[in-house]
Amino acid sequence: MKHKSSGITLIELLVAIAVLTILLSIGVPSFNNVIQNSRSTALANEIVTALNLARSEAVRRAQDVKVCASTDEATCNGAWDGTSGWIVIPDVAGATPLRVWEAPSASAVIVQAGAAGDIIFDALGELSGGATTLSTRFTGCTGDQARSININASGRINARRVSCP
Question: General secretion pathway GspH domain spans which residues (predicted)?
Answer without folding.
Answer: 44-155
